[in-house]
Specification:
Layout lengths: L1 H5 L1 H32 L4 H24 L5 H20 L4 H29 L5 H6 L4
């Protein structure tokens, strides 16, 4: 905890991700299937397609970031969190199926960019002797 007090950027990354996961889990895993069935007359198969689009987008983004070895991890993290917020906001409003797929694409892009850049930042900024403790302090 003393390390986190002295490094607010690491604390921000951990808290930002924790808050995003908390919001995403409730909205994505609980709210979206209920909304799909109750308002758009769609079923769990549609939710599976949506989740597949998110996974494919995340995979493509991960590959693109892995291939381009020159990027600023903190910028990518913040852009990713912005994409996540925008995607969640879009799903949080009464969306249509096309809006849901666009939001899903944004969320998939975020999951890769935020996740990869978070790992890079923590590995670069946290001393090796406490790296495991910092990783285990994540809020999910």
């Amino acid at each position: 905890m003393s390390f986190l007090k002295d490094h607010p950027e690491i604390t921000f990354i951990i808290l930002g991700q924790g808050l995003g996961i908390l919001i995403n889990t409730g909205l994505w895993r609980v709210g979206l299937p209920i909304y799909l069935e109750g308002y758009l007359n769609e079923n769990i198969i549609t939710f599976g397609y949506i989740t597949g689009v998110m996974g494919a987008t995340s995979f493509i983004t991960s590959m693109a970031l892995g291939i381009s070895k020159k990027y600023n991890p903190l910028v990518v993290f913040n852009v990713g969190m912005g994409l996540w917020g925008l995607g969640l906001l879009m799903i949080g409003t009464p969306p249509t199926m096309s809006v849901i797929y666009i939001a899903t694409t944004l969320i998939g892009m975020d999951q890769a960019s935020e996740g990869l850049s978070r790992v890079v930042i923590l590995q670069e900024k946290v001393p090796a002797n406490i790296l495991g403790k910092v990783f285990s302090s994540r809020l999910h």
